[in-house]
Structures are given as C-alpha cells and as structure tokens.
C-alpha cells in the first residue's frame, strides 16, 4: 500500500508505569518487514553486592545472512559479533565470521 503498517504491544510495570516488555512488527512501503522485541526484565542488577551483569543480545536477519551480537554488559570483552552469510548451494553458506 501507500503507507507502511506498524503493530506494537507493550507491558508496563505496575509500580512505575515504565514499559518493561514490547513486541512490534513494522511493514515498510517497499514490503520489507521488521520484527522487534525487547524487555527490561533481564535478571541482574548493577546495585547488587557484588553487581550482576545482564546478558544483552541483538540479532538482525536479512536475505544475505544475519548479524548477531551477545555479551554481558558488565564484562565488555564477553561481547562477540558474528556474521553468518547466506549463499545457497555454495561452501560459504552458513559460514561464520567473527570481526570483533
């Protein structure tokens, strides 16, 4: 259609009203579709003694492959970026790279 479409839902914390979990689907005018999710319900606290980190993960998928990152927010060196390529019918299909 002429315009894209967005559908989103969120869950709010009863004590603060802050959004703590969300899901969205975004359809662009050119047919590209994005699916997003997020949460603030990750176990861990910077205020604990000792502080407990939270696992952060980001994944982006597309026609040519995917980009994935994950790590503990308190331990920067725990993060790892992975690139996986889609190349159907070739030895490179599914091959991973770790640029960082």
Give the terminus-to-terminus CA distance.
Answer: 40 Å
Mean pLDDT: 81
Largest sheet: 4 strands, antiparallel
List SSEs in N-to-C order.
Answer: EEEEEEE
- Strand order across the largest sheet: 4-5-6-7
Give the number of DSSP strands: 7
Low-confidence stretches: none
Report the structural category.
mainly beta
**Large-scale geometry:** flat
Rounded to the nearest angstrom, the radius of gyration is 18 Å
DSSP strand (E) fraction?
Answer: over 45%
Which short descriptors sum up this protein?
mainly beta, four-stranded antiparallel β-sheet, three-stranded antiparallel β-sheet
Structural description of this entry:
The protein is built from no helices and seven strands. By secondary structure, it is mainly β. A four-stranded antiparallel sheet has the order 4-5-6-7, with no helix packed on it. The protein has a three-stranded antiparallel sheet with strand order 1-2-3, with no helix packed on it. Strand 1 (5-12) and strand 2 (19-27) form a beta hairpin. The protein is flat. The model has no long low-confidence stretch (mean pLDDT 81).
Write the layout of secondary structure elements.
Blueprint: E1 5-12, E2 19-27, E3 33-39, E4 55-62, E5 65-72, E6 80-85, E7 96-97
Antiparallel strand pairs: 1-2, 2-3, 4-5, 5-6, 6-7
């Amino acid at each position: 259609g002429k315009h894209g479409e967005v559908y989103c839902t969120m869950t709010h914390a009863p004590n603060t009203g802050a959004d703590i979990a969300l899901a969205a689907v975004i359809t662009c005018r050119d047919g590209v579709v994005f699916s997003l999710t997020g949460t603030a319900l990750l176990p861990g606290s910077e205020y604990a003694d000792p502080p407990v980190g939270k696992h952060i993960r980001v994944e982006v998928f597309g026609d040519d492959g995917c980009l994935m990152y994950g790590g503990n927010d308190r331990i920067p060196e725990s993060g790892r970026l992975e690139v996986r390529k889609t190349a159907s019918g070739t030895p490179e299909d599914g091959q991973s790279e770790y640029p960082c």
